[in-house]
Amino acid sequence: MSIKNCYNFEDFRNLAKKKLPSPIFHYIDGGADDEVTLKRNTNSFDDCDLIPNVLANVGKPDLSTTIFGKKINIPVFLSPTAMQRLYHHEGDKATARAAQKFGTFYSMSSMANTTIEEISNISGGPKLFQLYVHKDKGITDDLIERSKRAGFDGMCLTVDTLVAGNRERDHRTGFTTPPKLTLQSLMSFALHPKWVFDYLTHEKFELANVAKKTDKGTNITTSVIQYVNEQYDPSMNWKDAEYIVKKWDGPFALKGVMSVEDAKRAIDIGCTAIMISNHGGRQLDGSRSPFDQLKAISDAVGDKLEIILDGGVRRGTHVLKALAAGAKACSFGRMFLFGLSVGGQEGVEKVLQNLHDEINRNMILMGCKNLSELDSSKLIYRK
User: If you average pLDDT over residues 20-36, what whole number do you get?
Assistant: First the structure.
């Protein structure tokens, strides 16, 4: 199978499974504990149905929306994801270029392998920086100031990763960062020589934005879990979040909001958006899916801030259901990471093109000329 024959999530996933060493593939693919929440994130979309209207003279539908003060051409964007250098040697650079081509947001993780300044230089498209609060507050402040100077359009603070989730696949496969040959991983790396060659012959693996701030930025000696547990501040609270919102002083989202109560508090501290997210099912297994919580949160605060649904999105119909339930846009991670893994920028562009085409086609089938026509009247829940 080639990239041009990848039509959906499973196609990209299956191709990535062939191309990536097992520890790398399962780091993308896996979730926490028994992965119940990981599965539910997507399956929750099946609990409701779209209701189309016919003979609506749709023509060419307008797929644009506005988030973080920027108009984007499609109501989806790329979630912030760490260490993209592991999946393809161009990593965030390829992702940022692909997002710009489709007129949507690229999101940079605090744990990116490319610097804030490098991305600013190569991409003129809309950009979002994702922040983790470090125990060393100087690192946090530095990331905020650099993102401002580099012209990033928005910031999101991830609030669901005070400690790392229990990702058992990583233990079984021998996943480490930087990748190391272990008893569990030796054979898999040996069977993927192209990945090994690309990894060894391109720029050094490091967490580029914190590399000069902590030695852990260049040497995560055991795992991502170790880095999170050693470097992130588990005592982060609402006062800390409010400080960051004010310091950024621009479009700002809390990423990881899952309750109505927290959505209301996000408004109180000055957030302009929230990202309903459970970290792709990688943190608290057994938690609700973002789509399961979307309607209740939208009913409570949808007229006061932008709601972004993050997690479980695989199809254009998932996006339409989320918008009808009250989201302003959706973000996703695994699917574009699989695309990046199999083809770099071209792979990410194919993922975005597929989603664009699905959303466009299904808007016509729904009888909707623009996204504002997707409302609760277009959705019915089975339960």
Answer: 96
User: What is the greatest pairwise CA distance in the chain?
Assistant: 62
Whether the CB-CB separation of 219 and 272 falls below 8 Å is answered with no
Instruction: Write phi, then psi, for 32 (nearest 5 degrees).
Output: -90, 150
Residue 11 Cα to chain centre, angstroms: 19
Q: How far apart are CA 231 and CA 96, in angstroms?
A: 26
Q: Which two tokens stand for residue 363?
A: 């808007």
Which residues does 121 contact at the CB level (< 8 Å), separation at least 6? none
Rounded distance between C-alpha atoms, residue 375 and residue 213, angstroms = 47
Q: Of 26, 279, 318, 356, which one is the catalytic site residue?
A: 279
- Give the number of other CB atoms < 10 A from CB of residue 246: 11
Ordered by where they begin, the domains of the chain are 3-381 (3.20.20.70)
Q: Tell me what pLDDT residue 162 has.
A: 84
DSSP per-residue codes, 75-111: SEEEPP-S-GGGT-TTHHHHHHHHHHHTT--EEE-TT
Contacts of 266 (CB under 8 A, 6+ apart): 254, 257, 274, 301, 305
Q: Which residues pair with 48 in a beta bridge?
A: 381
Q: Clarify whether 279 is annotated catalytic.
A: yes
Q: Give pLDDT tens digits for 119-167.
A: 999 999 999 999 998 888 899 999 999 999 999 999 999 999 888 899 9
Mean local confidence (pLDDT), 213-241: 71
How does strand 76-78 pair with strand 154-158? unpaired
What's the chain's Rg over C-alpha atoms?
Answer: 20
Q: Are 341 and 194 in contact (CB under 8 A)?
A: no
Cβ count near 124 (within 10 Å): 10
Which pair of structure tokens corresponds to residue 323? 């918008």
- For 335, which DSSP code? H
User: DSSP secondary-structure letter at 238?
Assistant: H
Burial class (CB in 10 A: 0-12, 13-18, 19+), 378: buried
CB burial of 57-72 (b: ≥16 within 10 Å; e: otherwise) equals ebeebebebebbebeb
Q: How far apart are CA 113 and CA 91, in angstroms?
A: 7
Strands 48-50 and 379-381 turn out to be: antiparallel
Cα(274)–Cα(302) distance, integer angstroms: 10
